[in-house]
Specification:
elongated; alpha+beta
């Protein structure tokens, strides 16, 4: 049986890369002494997979991991055991038992929400400037994003952009739904 865990990453652990997070969870599973399934072969490893890798330095409240479990594991007890040995900043908020043949976490993710908090001296003026820029971006057919090796038009993948005041601080929140 496969369990899908929803977890958050906040604080200093946001600086861990994807492979480090995988190793972290492998160690947490062993420390919590939950009965995970292992691959067969010369170097057995836990049957674990993650949704899309999160960029280093980014925090999240909605990252996902799938873990193959031995029969007889109670999802809530496994979640409680894992949370009891987690470092500060990582917390499992939900667990689901997947049906047989369900898509893995990577294939199941169809969208993401990014939240940017922009600080400014005058939030009202800043919001007007950002709203105008967002309006111009959404009116365009192309928004080019450059990576190390290539450029890509990301406009078709942006479903919605929202601008609102930041209630916690003096600034603006920008939500991008991809």
């Amino acid at each position: 049986m496969t369990f899908r865990f929803k977890f958050s990453r906040r604080g200093p652990v946001r600086y861990l890369g994807h492979l480090d997070m995988m190793r972290y969870f492998q160690k947490v599973v062993m420390k919590a002494e939950v009965r995970a399934k292992y691959s067969e072969g010369f170097h057995p490893h836990q049957l674990m997979s993650f949704a899309y890798p999160l960029g280093v330095g980014m925090e999240t409240d909605g990252d996902y991991m799938d873990l193959e479990m031995e029969d007889g594991n109670d999802p809530d007890e496994v979640m409680k055991a894992l949370n009891s040995v987690m470092n500060e900043g990582v917390y499992i908020s939900a667990v689901t038992v997947l049906r047989e043949g369900a898509q893995n976490a990577m294939a199941a993710v169809t969208a993401a929400t990014y939240e940017l908090i922009l600080e400014c001296d005058d939030p009202i003026e800043g919001r007007l400037i950002i709203e105008k820029a967002v309006e111009e971006m959404l009116a365009s057919d192309t928004i080019m994003a450059d990576s190390k090796k290539t450029s890509k038009n990301i406009r078709p993948g942006i479903f919605e952009l929202m601008v609102e005041p930041n209630a916690d601080e003096q600034g603006i929140r920008l939500y991008m739904f991809l």
